[in-house]
Amino acid sequence: MRAQFVLSEIGVGLRRNLTMTFAVVVSVALSLALFGGSLLMSDQVNQMKGYWYDKINVSIYFCNKSNAQSDPNCAKGAVTEDQKKTILVDLKKMSVVENVTYESQDEAYKHYQEQFGDSPLASTITPDQMQESYRIKLKNPEQYKVIASAFNGRDGVYSVQDQKGILDNLFGLLNGMNWAARAVMSLMLVVALMLIVNTVRVSAFSRRRETGIMRLVGASGFYIQAPFIMEAAVAGLIGGGVACGFLVTARYFIIDHGLALSEKLNLINFIGWDAVLTKLPLILATSVLMPALAAFFALRKYLKV
Which of 43, 97, 236, 259 has the fewest C-beta atoms under 10 angstroms from its C-beta? Predict the structure, then answer.
């Protein structure tokens, strides 16, 4: 097969169906950008889970004088020193507990002021209204219920709270957004495949005289099909290159510069460039194989060779 002939036929085909080629490039670019974005979103969620789940605590909040007057869990009054010591001893005996940290009312008040000092309610809160607590680091964050069942309802205990529940809601939202992006990506992929098939069909029909002559002179089926398949592959590769450009640009302007979320949201451990760069070869390979295979199967139906 003469490479020069095939390349010239590819150029002719792309120019002849320029509008449809442009539509294929755009649809492939958008669908693969969403595909890459969904992969990166999964990586981001998994990285955040690994980072935050390692830092979350289970908190045992104790009753104070304010709770004793208003909450049925503290009907027996504020927590005593003996009750706190007993709970601490019991915690240290539990195999699921890694370490325990005590937070006094003054420390809780200080942390509250640091986080919510600008709110109107902050000026009305006093240290004696804050709750003492034990912050418990578990060896396995999934074992929160062991702590909850052991200490909920104890004398002096106001509540047992698991920070993992708050994070689970956040990660559930992020995963929901990720699945929505995948649904849109799937729709765009279907649109791209339909455009590719239609483009190949129109191209084959417009060049039916040339392909007929090639059959008469004994050209092989693959020799006749190759220009059409490579046209689709080239258009897809251009779209894949655009998609890669989208992802790199988004990572650069959203996380590093422009919005600079990595500087504004220090509490989030963002994915690095390695996560982005490792997805680019997959996107480029998909951008070539997907149109080429779609064209190959379309030609079996529309181009009798």
Answer: 259
Distances (CA, A) of 129 to 67, 224, 231: 9, 83, 72
What's the rounded Cα separation, in Å, for the pair 17 and 202?
Answer: 8
Place of tokens 């080629």: 21
Pairwise CA distance, residues 185 & 83, whole Å = 57
pLDDT reported for residue 210: 65
Q: What is the mean pLDDT of the chain?
A: 80
As a dihedral over the C-alpha atoms of residue 90, residue 93, residue 94, residue 97, rounded to 10 degrees, the angle is 100
pLDDT at 134: 92
Q: What is the pTM of this model?
A: 0.66
- 64 in helix, strand or coil? coil
Separation in Å, CA 15 to CA 129, 141, 158, 196, 199:
75, 59, 74, 15, 12
What pLDDT was estimated at residue 222? 67
Banded pLDDT at 171 (limits 50, 70, 90): confident
What single string gives the DSSP state of each residue in the chain? --HHHHHHHHHHHHHHTHHHHHHHHHHHHHHHHHHHHHHHHHHHHHHHHHHHHTT--EEEEEP-HHHHHH-GGGTT-S--HHHHHHHHHHHHH-TTEEEEEEE-HHHHHHHHHHHHTTSGGGGG--GGGS--EEEEEESSGGGHHHHHHHHTT-TTEEEEEEHHHHHHHHHHHHHHHHHHHHHHHHHHHHHHHHHHHHHHHHHHHHTHHHHHHHHHTT--HHHHHHHHHHHHHHHHHHHHHHHHHHHHHHIIIIIISTT-HHHH-TTS----HHHHHHHHHHHHHHHHHHHHHHHHHHHHHHS--
Task: Quickly count: other Cβ atoms within 10 Å of residue 221's Cβ.
Answer: 14
